[in-house]
Amino acid sequence: MSRLEKALNRAKQARQEGKIGPTPDHQEAETVSQAGKDKIINPVYTHTKVCQTDPSQLEKRGVITTDFHPAIVEEYNLLRAKLEAIMVKNGFKSMLIASPGPEEGKTLTAVNLAISLSRETSRTVLLVDADMRNPAINEYLGISKGPGLFEHLTKGIPLKDLLINPGLPRLTVLPAGTPSDYPADLLASPAMKRLVADIKDRYPERTIIFDSPPLTAFSDGLYLARYADAVLMVVRSGVTKENDLLHALENLSDRPLLGTVLNRVKKNQCAAYSYGKY
Ligand SMILES: Nc1ncnc2c1ncn2[C@@H]1O[C@H](COP(=O)(O)OP(=O)(O)O)[C@@H](O)[C@H]1O
Ligand SMILES: [Mg+2]
Question: pLDDT tens digits for 149-192?
Fold first, then answer.
């Protein structure tokens, strides 16, 4: 067992023993996860800008398209299924994608998870680029730069004028807008609180995913964690340091942890690629 796995196990044990914050109830989730699945949602975007993205460009960036490597799509679907079960069971509608350091896979996980979740016809997904220091969601999805969260919080530009549909059904993006070196004050502002209340209340079938900057370097993630119902921690295999992970988990100890994604595991370490006859 690697040092990282040991650290995760220790953190899990500490949570179970009540030493570190709440862990959502993972039990009996399948029975309730069927609720509300009969309804098919197919929104027609009239006001929201629609941006047609090129699937081959998305693929190059690792974004899952319908033709993406099935084994990888399946990994995200597996993640979706696990998270969905926990979220339904606990009544969670929003999550923060966090990680201790940079380049660990937060944004790619946020984008691919959002796409995977939006493929289910019973819900819509709002992907919020709340990494206002280093916004990247537009680039992953091939959306041109423009106003976003920053402009909403600083200039009061209405949300409806900022949302973008990246050409995929049921998925809407709130871009970060102009990058800012001092976003913590904005993220803690009454305008941000109002925005979160608004996006959470407006559509009951909506799942909200917040992307965020690294936890160890900035306070932004801690503010964002207060707005999200739960946190999904991304850990980069062979790179994320044990102490940084433990520190990040401690900082978020009062927030429910959905789980941990071990990202960028090398192919030869990953059994999923050789699963059965597929
Ligand atoms: N599972 C993965 N497999 C291959 N490359 C990945 C994976 N996850 C992330 N990357 C790549 O690693 C880099 C950092 O990922 P990103 O999601 O932008 O990190 P973060 O948001 O944590 O800074 C990007 O170039 C991205 O394409
Ligand atoms: Mg990022």
Answer: 999 999 999 999 999 999 999 999 999 999 999 999 999 999 99
pTM: 0.88
Distance CA 207, CA 59 (A): 24
Nearest ligand, measured from the Cα of 101: 1
Looking at residue 70, its amino acid is P
* Mean pLDDT along residues 106-125: 96
Q: Ligand 1 pocket check: which of 57, 103, 232 to mutate, most ligand atoms within 8 Å of Cβ? A: 103
Question: Residue 223 and residue 186: Cα distance in Å, rounded?
Answer: 10
What residue segments make up the domains of the chain, in order of their start?
40-259
Q: Where residue 3 falls among pLDDT bands split at 50, 70, 90?
A: low
Q: What is the assigned CATH class of domain 40-259?
A: alpha beta
Cα–ligand 2 centroid distance for 240 (angstroms): 15
Q: Which residue has the tokens 């949570």?
A: 15
Residue 209's closest CA among 192, 227, 194? 227
Q: Residue 233: what residue type?
A: M
Select from 108, 233, 236 the residue to mutate for testing ligand 1; criterion: most ligand atoms less than 8 Å from CB. 108
**Adjacent-strand bridge partners of 234:** 261
If we measure between CA atoms, which residue out of 157, 161, 188, 182 comes closest to residue 172? 161
* pLDDT of 277 strictly over 50: no
What radius of gyration do the chain's Cα atoms show? Answer: 18
* CB-CB neighbours of 14 under 10 Å: 17
Closest alpha carbon to 24 in 111, 93, 76: 93
**For residue 103, how far is the Cα from the chain centroid?**
15
Kindly state the DSSP code that residue 269 receives in the 8-state scheme. Answer: G
**263 has which bridge partners?**
236
